[in-house]
Amino acid sequence: MDAQITLRIDGDERSLTVDTRTTLLDAMRERLGVNSPKKGCDHGQCGACTVLLDGRRALTCLALAVAYDGAEITTAHGLADDEILHPIQQAFIDYDGFQCGYCTPGQICSAVGMLDELRAGHPSHVTASLTSLPQLTDEEIRERMSGNLCRCGAYANIVAAIREGVVA
Questions:
Q1: What DSSP designation does 128 have?
Q2: Which string of b and e fits 71-96 if b means at least 16 CB within 10 Å?
Q3: What is the band of 168 on the pLDDT scale with cuts at 50, 70, 90?
Q4: Tens of pLDDT along 84-124?
Q5: Which residues pair with 58 in a beta bridge?
């Protein structure tokens, strides 16, 4: 069965007809040519497909496109303001937070989303106190980013980039 949906991706409204079984990732990549989110494991285990979905980080390989009709989707590409990179994007460059770069768009979207969660006071498994705002420690960053895998092993630089991206 097919359904007509509209997605707002990186500020552009896009309409398309999809089979109701189509994932959001496949709709974006195969139907709309949005190639920032990557298809890694296709099981929600690697985080390469992470985007900000209505402001919250989400794995698009696990989301059905029809469930997000009308949604606001921000990819790593959409975080930049024209020629000016988002501070997290710039920090990934400055701190070599990538090697092959395949996981980088998902890492960047996840970092932006997790920093928003941290600022909102959402605790993680390693948050010391549930009654005060979590602190941005390396342990918090590692825990909150644990759903995004880097097969090249650039983790130390990713943590440094996130820490620096907050300061910028």
A1: S
A2: bbbbbbbbbeeeeebbbbbbbbeebe
A3: low
A4: 999 999 999 999 998 899 999 999 999 999 999 999 999 99
A5: 51
Amino acid in position 138: D
Q: Which two tokens stand for residue 12?
A: 């552009």
The pairs formed by 59-62 with CB atoms below 8 angstroms and a separation of 24 or more are 59/147, 60/23, 60/24, 60/25, 60/28, 61/23, 61/24, 61/25, 62/23
Whether pTM > 0.85 for this model: the answer is yes
The beta-carbon contacts of 128-137 under 8 Å, at least 24 apart in sequence, are 136/163, 136/166
pLDDT surpasses 70 at 68: yes
DSSP code string of 43-88: SSSS-TTEEEETTEEEETTSSBGGGGTT-EEE-HHHHSBTTBPPHH
Return the SS3 of 6: strand
For residues 136 and 126, is the Cβ–Cβ distance under 8 A? no
